[in-house]
From TrEMBL:
Example GO molecular function: branched-chain 2-oxo acid dehydrogenase activity
Keywords carried by this UniProt record: Metal-binding, Mitochondrion, Oxidoreductase, Potassium, Thiamine pyrophosphate, Transit peptide
The enzyme's E.C. designation: 1.2.4.4
Catalytic activity as recorded in UniProt: N(6)-[(R)-lipoyl]-L-lysyl-[protein] + 3-methyl-2-oxobutanoate + H(+) = N(6)-[(R)-S(8)-2-methylpropanoyldihydrolipoyl]-L-lysyl-[protein] + CO2
Superkingdom of the source species: Eukaryota
Obligatory cofactor(s): thiamine diphosphate
Keyword tRNA processing appears in the UniProt entry: no
GO cellular component: mitochondrial matrix
Record protein name field: 2-oxoisovalerate dehydrogenase subunit alpha
A Pfam family hit: E1_dh
Localization: Mitochondrion matrix
Stretches assigned to the Dehydrogenase E1 component domain: 106-410
Length: 461
């Protein structure tokens, strides 16, 4: 019988076989933008701090605490004003063709028509849950249009416009919402929790902010992939979240690891004013979410989320920054207003006045703003608007009716997908369930499920 050498002894013996390195002067290591550099220890008479944790901080003899009130709020970048006019007439022309602008508008319009139909369907008991994107369509569509199809996306739950822009079909939306047999997730997730492997969009999950550290990790994997294949076009991760999610610990962990590992990830925050019923003034005291990006050493910008051109341009620039050199993360805070209730489980009239919501609807929203711009350029008019709305509504209702009539996924999907091969325990549970259904057919009517009772024994599709 062989004996094991203790781990500590093995490590010692391995180290003993290596030549000992020559002694070198002690240095302090600091990582900046992914590049390690050496800073000599504090020199006599220096005016600046050279501690590892605070480099380039000048010494002072004045005892003064920095107060947030002394700093100006970070500016908000915009291109279009509320009237659909370009603010800076001297700026370069938009890097968007008329066809691209028209697609962005039609994508936002589709989401704005889809949302109220599905909201009412939930109120009628035909859906269990729904969330609308009213007022935030420009953030989703504008940012997605600036990314490449190969880029990876982690969404929260108000990114219907991202899916629409990437080519998620209406029937795919409906199949997921009704959790029928054609649903990619086979009915295992809540409504609005879309996902698409073909479109490089990870499936949405309900726990708040979990997608943030996942996105940082995925971005690091893309970075390693590019280092191994430098001839291939680098990819980025774009991670969406609301300002409420930024109160979670996962937000801070994600930004820190992305910054210290120089991960090519765009963190895109939708600051819509409310985390369910909690207004921003009760969520934080700092300068929004953008100031936190700067605190983590991340390039940051704040944009007008109701200006789809500003969102698109900022995201395009962020993607360029993220893929340059040794790569790095970027934070975008898109300012908007959540016109709708948080979800069908929420009644926002309990915590905000209706006139506040109506004021935002009349005063400013991304669809109206872009439409005014397009009308000024002769790209759109009332006749085209009416025709497009009718076309989209018919397509939505057609997909709605088809998905609602489909059967639910086979009962075997309750057990599949956990292990590569079905375990004995799961097999016995399937047999037990089949016996109960057979014994009590009136109490367990499974006719709406694909294959009925026999669907328990069919292999997953």
């Amino acid at each position: 019988m062989s004996t094991r050498t203790p781990a500590r002894r093995v490590l010692s013996s391995c180290l003993a076989t290596r030549p000992r390195p020559k002694r070198r002067p002690r240095v302090c290591l600091q990582v900046t933008s992914g590049v390690r550099w050496n800073s000599v220890k504090q020199q006599p008479g220096s005016d600046f701090v050279h501690f590892p944790g605070a480099v380039h901080s000048k010494f002072t003899t004045t005892l003064n605490f920095t107060s947030p009130s002394e700093k100006n709020a970070m500016p908000t970048y915009r291109i279009l004003d509320q009237s659909g006019q370009i603010v800076d007439k001297s700026r370069e022309p938009l890097n968007l063709s008329d066809s691209e602008i028209l697609k962005m508008y039609k994508d936002m319009l589709t989401v704005s028509i889809l949302d109220p139909i599905m909201f009412q369907a939930q109120r009628q008991g035909r859906l269990s849950f729904y969330m609308v994107s009213a007022g935030e369509e420009g953030i989703a569509v504008g940012s997605a249009a600036a990314l490449r199809k190969e880029d990876v996306i982690f969404a929260q739950y108000r990114e219907t416009g991202v899916f629409q822009q990437r080519g998620f079909r209406l029937d795919e939306f409906m199949n997921q919402l009704f959790a029928n047999r054609l649903d990619n997730g086979l009915g295992r997730n809540m409504p609005v929790h879309y996902g698409s492997k073909d479109l490089n969009i990870h499936t949405i999950s309900s726990p708040l902010a979990t997608q943030l550290p996942q996105a940082a990790g995925a971005a690091y994997a893309l970075k390693m992939e590019h280092l191994q294949n430098p001839s291939e076009e680098p990819r980025v991760v774009c991670c969406y979240f609301g300002e409420g999610a930024a109160s979670e610990g996962d937000f801070h962990a994600a930004l820190n690891i992305a910054a210290t590992r120089s991960c090519p990830v765009i963190f895109l925050c939708r600051n819509n004013g409310y985390a369910i019923s909690t207004p921003t003034l009760e969520q934080y005291r700092g300068d929004g979410i953008a100031s936190r990006g700067v605190g983590y050493g991340i390039d940051t910008i704040r944009v007008d989320g109701n200006d789809i051109f500003a969102v698109h341009e900022a995201t395009a620039r962020a993607r360029k920054l993220a893929t340059e050199g040794s790569m790095r993360p970027v934070l975008i805070e898109a300012m908007s207003y959540r016109v709708s209730h948080h979800s069908t489980s929420d009644d926002s009239s309990k915590y905000r006045e209706l006139r506040e919501v109506e004021s935002w609807k009349r005063r400013d929203n991304p669809i109206t703003r872009l439409r005014k711009y397009m009308e000024g350029k002769g790209l759109w008019n009332e006749e085209l608007e009416k025709k497009e709305q009718e076309t989209v509504k018919k397509a939505v209702l057609k997909a709605f009716n088809a998905a609602e009539r489909e059967k639910r996924p086979a009962l075997r999907n309750l057990f599949d997908g956990v292990y590569e091969e079905m375990t004995e325990e799961l097999d016995s549970q399937i047999q037990e369930l089949a016996g109960i259904i057979e014994k009590y057919p009136n109490e367990y009517d499974v006719g709406d499920f694909e294959g009925g009772r026999e669907g328990l024994f069919k292999e997953k599709r």
